Amino acid sequence: MFPHFGATADTLSKASTIMFRIGTDAHLYDDPEDVNIAPLLDSKFDSEKCEALKRLLALIAQGFDVSNFFPQVVKNVASQSLEVKKLVYLYLLHYAEKRPNEALLSINSFQKDLGDTNPLVRAWALRTMAGIRLHVIAPLVLVAVGKCARDPSVYVRKCAANALPKLHDLQLEEHSSTIEEIVGILLSDHSPGVVGAAAAAFNSVCPNNYSLVGRSYKRLCEVLPDVEEWGQIVLIGILLRYAIARHGLVKKSIMFSLHGKESPQSEKDGLDVEFSLEKDSSMDLKFNSEMASMVSRCYIEGPDEYLSRSSYTNRIFSEFHNAKFTSGKSNDDVKILLQCTLPLLWSNNSAVVLAAAGVHWIMVPCEDVKRIVKPLLFLLRSSSTSKYVVLCNIQVFAKAMPSLFAPHFEDFFIISSDSYQIKALKLEILCTIATESSISSIFKEFQDYIQDPDRSFAADAVAAIGLCAQKLPKMAITFLEGLLALTRQELLTTEFGSIEGEAGVLVQVLTSIKSIIKQDPPNHEKVVIQLVRSLDSIKVPAARAIIIWMMGEYNNLGEIIPRMVTTVLQYLAWSFSSEALETKLQILNTTFKVCQIAVLVLLKWGKINCCGIKLLNVQSPSIEISKSSSSSSSSSLSSSYSSSKLTSSSSSFSSSSSRSEEVRVDDAFLFCCDVDATFFPLLNLVFRKKGFSVAYSENIVATFCFPFISLICLKVVYYLGVSKAQSKEITICSRFKFKTVSRQLTFIDTFNVQCIYLSAAMLYYSEILSNAFPCLITITAEGKCIEPLNVSIKVNCEETVFGLNLLNRIVNFLS
Amino acid sequence: MPPLMAIEFLCRVADVLSDYLEGLNEDLIKDNFVIVYELLDEMIDNGFPLTTEPNILREMISPPNIVSKMLSVVTGNSSNVSDTLPGATASCVPWRTTDIKYANNEVYVDLVEEMDAIINRDGVLVKCEIYGEVQVNSHITGVPDLTLSFTNPSILDDVRFHPCVRFRPWESHQILSFVPPDGQFKLMSYRVKMLKSIPIYVKPQLTSDAGTCRINLMVGIKNDPGKMIDSITVQFHLPPSILSADLTSNHGVVNILSNKMCIWSIDRIPKDRTPSLSGTMVLETGLERLHVFPIFQLGFRIQGVALSGLQIDKLELKVVVNRLYKGFRASTRAGLYEVRS
Q1: Helix, strand, coil percentages for chain A (3-state, nearest 5)
Q2: Complex-level ipTM
Q3: Which residues of A touch B291 (CB under 8 A)?
């Protein structure tokens, strides 16, 4: 219906509009002030008054302030012509608040009109009078409303009900009981039309005065199908809240099974009308009952209100305080509400259908909930705005009970005219309700969506495939193949792919692949290999970063990957300087995971400071090279190794000797440690001693820049122990470990760092094993983060001289 | 207020306004601003819907018509506000005025169906359903009580009713029993799912190589519904990566709008040949092949057939008036009918 706006505006040509405009009020709108309005208002002919008022209305519509005509207009309230009256009322309502004193002048004629024989005149007078919203006349209006609430005309009584919220808005504390009384009278009116309006008044005047509803609950239920549609929506909500307040949640309903469990007692009192969990003392039940009471109170009072004042205790509703449960089969109130809302599922008004569906969702036993499915799905064939609202609701229902919508997956297939938001919602719902029987059709659809011209939607479809794979692991292989085929697509991988949202799709493809592999890495070894091989053709930085991350994460997987690692790292090292920031970081990350050596030991033994190691902040990824200040850096490095008689390992270091004099960007390996604040004091302790400054950023503490030495790498495996989501606290103990193994396995250096936070104690210990001189060195550092560490060192070695020497060095290093 | 209530109400306002003004756009609203003001005042009061039933509104505020327009031109004034309250506001059938008299009693029932279908990139029919409405136009004296029944109500997947339909007879016997509003109204809407046949096929072929893309589109009758299919159109958005397109057809007219929307109006399929559209499209520089493919939206209209197969059995009037003329019609048009390529 809304598309009419655009379409017809375009097609109506100027010429035809002129024809259409003859006889309309167009001339009044185009030039409202082409005659003098004031004399017209005082004219004795109704038609001239009418014209003047229309001109005023046109001026209001165009945004002019014409309140200066107020006194003259008010005089015309007494006019006998209904059209003049109507126009005067429109004007009055617009300016009454601005000109309160003059507005009072009109009250007399309103009161006269209230006694008119024509119900239309009475109703209009009441509506306008209540609409003026002045405190001064509120008592008069209240009397009028009271009188009209007993009027013989249905229309007048309906207007009386509509006037109540207006009075309530004025916050007349002293009259609130009278207003509520009138609400009660109107709620028990015998005409359905009045009941609907009264329900709306009830909702805004006294939403929690359940005694008013309780008086005529049965009758209200019965009259529900005859109430006009807007009243139905409000009345359904009121009846639902009343039923929950009175009887609590229904046993076996989905709400109940989600938020509470049946107590052992429920079996024996199956026929009991009400039962309370109050008497149960066990912790579990108490928790359930609290949950249930919270949920039901949310419904009784409306979630916003309830959550906003959840802190102070509930005085008014103490009678409903305890969570109660009731059985849907035996409770008459619940039964009649369900019965009377059932036909409303066929209503023409989508809001009514949704409200009725809500009642059934909350009240009906789990096995009967499916009756709301088809009506809800039918609502999807309405305007796109309401479609969005309905989909949001379906999403909530589907999450709680996917089986409900699972057979109807076709209804969520996407059509090109859907807006992006609707498409995204539909995708989410499809993921939620996918089952093994429907997934193949859904997957086929997803594959179509990937070729959609809307690329961000295509990316979402890819993400949805990843989600489905996590949900249905059996299909993972099929999904992976489909996704891999996408990565091979020429367009995604070429240079062109970096623009126009193609990059987004590719990154999403890889993210989905990553999440699928994560579920079962050993089975997907080949996928990783394939992706790593395609590194050369994939140019999108974020996509490269993901592949490199996978490379590092699964470097021990299977047999082929460990053999590829060295080559790939070399390739990455050479391309390092041309990579984007995020890719660079992942290269570093991977390097750490793959290559391992103890940086601490190296720092000490290799006299690294001479080599020109500098700590960098990772935030600026440009590599700073500081040339070695002292001469013969690498020679001293290797010599120090030979002096410590770990000769067999020195070969790996000596290869760098030729390069280290002239260090270039390309030759550099960047090392960074993924450590957090708890490790920071330790690093600081070590490095500050050496005159380095340690930069700290949120995740990454420091970056070391090394000369490119064939296989000197560092591994920092950091296990952040946010172990399981079951426990709500952050874990007390987190552990991280330096495991340092050089390629040739000539010596094994292991640093185990255990760190306990929350208790703020830190434990650090390290083992250094040597092949040449078997020895075990244990360094333990203990202390609180902010305080100096207590360091103790133990060396177990067969050769005493070497052992003592080593111990000496370590002590020197640490102190 | 529940969000759907607001949306539904706005839709209702739009419906009523476009009914009154015979369209809805800025100019029409400006030209009839007094009526719009009066209508809004009657439809909503203090943020809550007051009177939304079109029949009652019509009695309270008469729509602008030729007579009133002429009258206002000749006499210079006219009132469109009624002096009396419509009787229907008080009756138990608020959608109907009580004292209606016709010389000729007649009732027309139209089945108006829209076919939604999705054909995926492999040419497989993924989803096909009918969304239909039973539209009734009744001019009957007094307060008639009508019953309408279908020969095959079981095919209906789900239904929605005008408030005038009584629930009980439908629940037990699938019979529509109602007191109709006067004039045109939508009695019920229904959905028929899981249909297997579509009347028209669309076969798109797109091949792209070396920066150009060839398109070939064929449209033909797949399952003859037995009646003439007309107003056939095929619409599609050219993918954004296409710079220019040169499209020709052997039947009908091809138009490319400025927003890259391409509309091919075929109207009726000729007997002697299959309509086809073909041409070449130039891709953006640097792009070898097309990677996103357009989705074709098909439009058509078939008079005289309800494709869902729903059939009206009989329409009866409880209290027989002398000479009731009954008329039945059916038509089907394409709704959201998509062919992916």
Answers
A1: 60, 10, 30
A2: 0.88
A3: 451, 489, 491, 502
